[in-house]
Amino acid sequence: MRYFTVNTVAEWICFFIGLVCLTADKDLLWRRFPAYLLIVCLVETGGIYFRETLHLPNTPLYNGLVPLECIAVSSMFYYLLKPFCLKQRVLIGWFILVGSSFLIETLPGRFSRYAHHTIVLMAVVFIVASLYYFYLVLKDDHYVNLFTYAPFWWVSGTLIFYFGGTATNTFFEYLVNDHVADSIQYSLRYHIFKVLNVLLYGCWSYAFICRYRQMK
Fold it and tell me: Three-state DSSP class for 55?
């Protein structure tokens, strides 16, 4: 039962919804997105196994997910922004930047040190990309029903998660020197991220359902 946490349940539900809704999708990127979600589910579940059963640090496992997260989320943003004339060289340059940051941060410790700064860099760029996408959609003359528009819900979940996560981590960086807050910061942060995970995978699941209905 230790494997059935709020995070793992939300992730596995989102994966199965994506598998059902996107398997026959005509677009290759949407169709392959559940593969990334499966890796997320396995890493999250494996992380619990490493921590609770083997009593080993699971940081290298989560570090291995960082490049895949960058590729999956960035590729989706590129797909959504490409109609607005986003150049492929921007995506390639972004991958080089993140890859360099990741290697510089993790190689000295042989991947035992969590790639915190790379995660922050990714989060900031994903927030900017989300806001830029919303700006372009609102500016576009083409009418879309946002309530049933899959990209809108995918970007909404992404923005909520990365903005909320960045704000939470920044807030607790200020609290870390407060001895009164020291006893509650980790548990409170954990509960906040549980809510953010549910919102992320809830929005993504609804996006997959909207995509499925659109393809029918």
Answer: coil
